[in-house]
Amino acid sequence: MTAKTTICSLFLLLSLPLAFAGIEDYTIYYGTVTLGGSNLSSGNTISATIGGTAAGSTTTTTSGEYKLVVSLPSNASNGAAITISLATPSGYDSVTAITGNTYATGNNGKFTRLNLAFTGTATAAASSSAASSAAGGGGAAAASGGEAGPVAPGTKVTSPTVVSKIAGSLPAGWSNVDVYQIGSAKAEAVTASLGDVISAALKEVTEAPAVEAIKELQEAFAANEITQVIVTKTVESFQINNKDTGEIAYRSTVTLTFTAPADMQEVTIVEVIPKNVATSADLLTFPGEKPKVLQKDPVVEWFFQSVRKGESKDLSYVVSTDKKLTAADISTSTIAAGKEAAAPLPPAERKIFTKQVVVGLLIVVLIVLIGLLIYYYVEHRKEKKGR
Q1: pLDDT tens string 61-72
Q2: In the predicted model, what is the mean pLDDT of the chain?
Q3: Are strands 26-35 and 111-113 parallel, antiparallel or unpaired?
Q4: Cα-atom radius of gyration of the chain, to the nearest Å?
Q5: Which residue from 317, 297, 293 is spatially nearest to 209, judged by alpha carbons?
Q6: What is the DSSP string of 234-272?
Q7: Which residues make Cβ contacts (< 8 Å) with residue 292, sequence separation at least 6?
Q8: How far is residue 218's CA from residue 144's CA, in Å, rounded to a whole number?
Q9: Is 276 within 8 Å of 309 (Cβ atoms)?
Q10: Distance spanning both ends of the chain, measured CA to CA
Q11: Which CATH superfamily is domain 26-121 in?
Q12: What are the beta bridge partners of residue 340?
């Protein structure tokens, strides 16, 4: 082997780990960012952690927008949960971190859009103006009060989380509002027999997609392929007063929550909403997880391929109504079921080329390189002596 060939071979060998070292263990998340329904101002710090390890941090430079580089820690793997936090700004006592997103190695080195909507507890001074500063949206019709300064029906809502949820269902231009709770919240666990709930739901649905979906659940339940998931349902009703026009709108929120008692697969939540509550799915707004609409008048379905033991899901929607309702007037049917995993869900796929592996490869190749150089030097010296 000539000196030139040996050196070229060594450099080619050295380039192998360097190529692997170029694997990008990070994703650039970007999008809109709000706090309490309003654009987050510039100068606020957003950070991410994965498995309790810091994974990235950024400071917003443009109101309502952010860009955050999230690096996958060496002790984490594909599918690891990401927790995104906002440093508590002035006017807030605390801000709730955003969970539920996972790191996907398929997005390594890519820009990935992820809109962030933070909620929190405002300080006493900030709470008094939270309702009037909430951003409006949605397109449901509002009922007219006829007079400026309509009468307050109950307790004024100051929670930025609730106000933000309601504001997202209001017509465009409804930004200067007061939100009042009508009566008390109604919270109950859905404990009726799954078979009874399914049978009752089949009497309400008429469109093929809804009928087929519920019949599939009925057949799976009869074959003992699925088990019931206990859901807690919380219903609240509100009156919204437009302080600019004197108009009044009514909204009700329904929140479904459940925690998986074991590792589960193919978890399905079907919500059948009677026509006296909402005549169309167009009157529903979903602040969080978006369901599939099975029937327009309306029946909706959430589906989760897998839910790990202890993992919770929070599903909610806002109903736009044309009349004043109390929580007791809102009654819906909820079907919640899934398959208990036969074995614990497998851990998320681990990466082959972690940073430690790349460094180890590099060290091995450097050792080989040094050994070959020494060998070449010794052989070259022997050739000189033999001439």
Answers
A1: 887 889 999 998
A2: 81
A3: parallel
A4: 29
A5: 293
A6: EEEEEEEEETTT--EEEEEEEEEEEE-SS-EEEEEEEEE
A7: 300, 301, 302, 303
A8: 44
A9: no
A10: 18
A11: Immunoglobulins (2.60.40.10)
A12: 264
Whole-angstrom distance, CA of residue 291 vs CA of residue 363:
51
Domain locations in the chain as residue ranges = 3-21+353-386, 26-121, 128-340
Percentage of residues in the chain having pLDDT higher than 90 = 34
> 277: number of CA atoms within 13 Å, CB side?
26
The position carrying tokens 């009869």 is 222
**pLDDT tens digits, residue range 149-183?**
566 677 888 888 888 889 889 998 898 899 999 98
Task: For 349, list phi and psi in degrees, rounded to 5.
Answer: -60, 130
C-beta of residue 252 within 8 angstroms of C-beta of residue 326: no
pTM (2 decimals)?
0.53
* DSSP secondary structure letters along 266-328: EEEEEEE--TTT-S-GGGEE-SSS--EEEETTTEEEEEEEEE-TT-EEEEEEEEEESS---GG
DSSP 148: S
Sign of the C-alpha dihedral computed for residues 119, 123, 126 and 132 taken in this order: positive
What's the burial of 55, exposed, middle or buried (CB within 10 Å: 0-12/13-18/19+)? buried
Structure tokens at 261: 């008692």
Instruction: Give CA–CA dist 284/185, Å, rounded.
Output: 19
For residue 240, list its beta bridge partners: 179, 249
